[in-house]
Amino acid sequence: AVTLGVIVVLYRFAKGFVASVAVLLGLVAGTAVAALAGRADFSGIGDAAWFGMRAPLHYGMPRFDVMAVLSIVLVMVIIAVESIGQFFAVGEVAGREVDERDIARALRADGLATVAAGLLNSFPTTVYSQNVGLLRITRVTSRWVVAAGGVMMLVLGLVPKVGAVVAAMPPAVLGGATVVLFSTIAVVGMQILAKADLSQARNTVLVAASLGIGFLPTAYPQFAEHMPTRQLRVLFESGIMLGTLTAVALNLFFHHLPSRRRPRPGTAVAADAP
Predict the structure, then answer these.
(1) Which of 47, 48, 154, 222 could serve as 160's disulfide partner, Cβ 3.0–4.6 Å?
(2) What is the 3-class SS of 164-200, one letter each residue?
C-alpha cells in the first residue's frame, strides 16, 4: 500500500524527472517502511559477491530430444503470441504504427535473446508487459534510452550484490508497483480496442468471445486438465493463446471469408450492362 500510495502521490504532484522515476521511488519508500516494520531481510546482501559470472553451458552441452523440442516450440509459440500483443502496445504508446516487418524483426530479436539466454544458463526470455507499462507511465519511448537501460542491466547482472538487493524487497512492495504497471497495460489495450468499430455486431461478438474464452483458464483452472495430451494441456492453460486464436479465427470468419447474401424480397437485381 505504501509503494502504491507513493507512486500515486508523486504522479499527482511531482513533475519532470521525479515523476519519471516515481515507480523507483515508490519501491525505495516501500522497502524502507518494510525494513522498519521488520518485514525485509537484508542479510543476503553482505554475503553476495561484488562480481560473479557463470561460464557458458555450465550445465553441459545441449541435447536435442524431439519431444522436448516440440514442447518448447509450443511454449515459444504461445510466448510469441503474447509478445506480438506487447509489440502493438509499444506501438500504441510510442505513437507508431507496427507493421509486419516490425513484428518480424522483434520476434527475431526475441529468439536470439532466448538462444543467448540458454547458452548463458538462463531461462528463455520474453517481452515483459511491466516494461510496456513503464513506457506508458514515464512517456520515455526513445530506443536509445531503452538500449542504454539494457546495457546497464547487462552490467548490473554481473554484480550479485544488486541481485541480492532486489531479492530483499518484500513481495508486497513489488506487488504495489506491479499493480500500476499491469493496470497500465490494460489501459493501453482499451485504447487499442477503442479504435475498432464496436458499433457493428460482428465486432462486438468477436471481442466478447475472445475475451470470454481468454479468461476461461483463469476462471476455471481445471479446464486444461481434461485435455488428452500434455501439449494440448500446455496450449489450453494459456488464456492469451486461447483468446488470440479465437480472435484470429473469428476475424477470418467475419471479415475475410466470402459471404453470399440473398437479396431481400422486393429488391431488384441489377443486370450486367452489355
Answers:
(1) 48
(2) HHHHHCCHHHHHHHHHHHHHHHHHHHHHHHHCCCCCC
